[in-house]
Design a protein that fits this description.
This protein is of the alpha+beta class. The protein has one helix and nine strands.
Length: 148
Amino acid sequence: MSRKRRRSIFDLMREYMEDFEAAAEEMAELAIAERPSWDARSSCLEPLCNVFVTADEVVVTADMPYTEPETVKVEAIGEDRLEIGAKMRQKLRFDDFGITHREGEFSSFRCQVRVPVPVNMKRMRVYFKRGILEIHLPRRRGHEIKVE
């Protein structure tokens, strides 16, 4: 006849602490990802951005209403990041959004976008029309992926 071995209280506590630590790390990662889309100190709003990957290119779009077209700047930061910035024609306040418990005004847009696949930053094409910024980046061919 076989007897089942009972787990000790120390084994149960160790498993509980490991589960707790894993849950805490997961929550911390979510807290870092969720941040406000404005910076009151520098008077900047973060535009809504979308990265669309196709077989030939990567298309990044940013919604930037009230933007002066001549102030739009797109800069490559490294091989996989873009920095987008522009000044607004008119300043926006929290009151304009219906937020009455905060104060501050915003005069520009600024954000950084990560490009998920290798692209050729030197052949970047930028279009701006009716408040929508569109950036076309051709995908880099011949990029080796290491298999371990």
